[in-house]
Design goal:
By secondary structure, the chain is mainly alpha-helical. The chain contains seven helices and six strands; from the N terminus they run ββααααββααββα.
Length: about 250
Amino acid sequence: MFPEIGSFGPFTLYSFGLMAALALVVPAFFLALDLRQRGMNPGLAVELAFGAGIGGFVGARLYYVVENRGEPGVSLISGSGLTWYGGLIGGVIGVWLVTLWRRKPIGVVANLAAAPLALGYAIGRMGCQLSGDGDYGSASSLPWAMSYPDGTVPTTQLVHPTPLYEAVAMLAIFWLLWRTRGRLTAPWSLFGAYLVLSGAERFLVEFIRQNPEELAGLTTAQLISVVSVAIGAALLLRGRNAEPRPVAASS
C-alpha cells in the first residue's frame, strides 16, 4: 500500500488525494466529449464535474467520519476514507446546485452525469485501495486475498480487496452507461440506470465487507442501496412511459 507517494519540501502527496484529483479530471473529459457530441457547450463539463466531484467527495468524507467517529486516525483532513451513499448524496447535490446556477434542465443533466459519476467513483475506490483506508472486506483464503500492513488502517490478515472489487464493477457500470447513453434519452432515465446498477453493486459487496448489520440482517449501506435501486427503477419506468409511441395509421 502507498498511503503517501512522497514529500516535496513541506508538501506531502497522498495517493488518495491524487486519485481524488483524477476522479474529477478524467470524468470531466468524458462529460465534455458527451456534451460536444450532443452539440452542447463542452465547457459545462468542468462546472458539472467539479459540482459532482466536490459534492461527492465532501459527502462521502463527511459520512465516513461520522460513521467511524472515535476510531484512531479518522478525521476530516486525513488522507483516506469514503462512504458510497454519502458520496452519492453529495454528488447529486453538487450537480443540482450547478444546474440551478446555469438554468439547465435537471433531468437532462442527471443523464449526462450518470456515466461520469460511475467513473469518478471507480477512480476514488482505487484511491481507497492505494491508501489502505480500512474499506477492505472480511477474511479470505482466495488466491487474490490481500493484507494491508502499511495502510492508513493497517491489517496483516488476508482479506477481500473490496476496493478493487468495487473499482472493477464501477468501471464496468461506466462502460455500460456510456454505451447506452444514446438509447436512454428520456430525462432521468440514464441516471435511473446508474442508481439501479450502483445500488446493486454496493448491496452485493456488503456481504463481504465488515460493516455491522442494522436491520433485517442488512447493513446501513444495503438498506440505502435498496432505496437507490427502487428510485432508479421508478425513474427508468417513468422514462419508458415518457418515450413517444408510434401512432397507428388510420384505415
